[in-house]
Amino acid sequence: MDNNNQESLEEKIQALNDTADTTNEHDPQDIEKNKLMGILAYLGILVLIPLFAAKESKFARFHTNQGLILCICGIILYLICRILLAISWKLAALVGIFLWIIEVALLILAIIGIVNVVKGRAKELPLVGKYRILK
Q: How far apart, in Å, are the Cα atoms of 107 and each of 1, 23, 111, 112, 123?
């Protein structure tokens, strides 16, 4: 890969990660108090813990929303795989590779979310961060 292509790829990745950061709208004490809840929000079904235990925390709610979107996407991917497997093993194998790539992307987004929580940031995730399920 030549230098121009590498710079172009880096610029694309940077542009993808250039999302809204609303950290300054959150109370610093709320951020410190609810970092654990924010981390749990990105750990699959554990998103239910901050969903019910940290209802009053704006910071935890922000990250719970993003974690909930990732969790729902993961469940939908699982169901698609199960349906395809029931229809045809060959079809499931072909589409499974594509779905596996999406699952890896969801894992990367969850890691980005956890890093944001640890840093005390309320920064939207690339691709899914702009969607709101929770108010």
A: 26, 23, 6, 9, 17
2-11 per-position pLDDT tens digit? 556 666 766 7
The answer to whether residues 132 and 29 touch, using CB atoms and an 8 Å cutoff, is no
List, for residues 76-97, the tens digit of each pLDDT value: 988 887 887 788 777 767 777 7
What predicted TM-score, i.e. pTM, was given to this entire model?
0.82
Q: Residue 123: helix, strand or coil by DSSP?
A: strand
Rg (CA), the chain: 17
- Of 120, 105, 103, the C-alpha closest to 33 is 120
* Token output for 14: 């940077």
Cα–Cα dist 41/44, whole Å = 7
Q: Do 65 and 134 meet the contact criterion of CB atoms below 8 Å apart?
A: yes
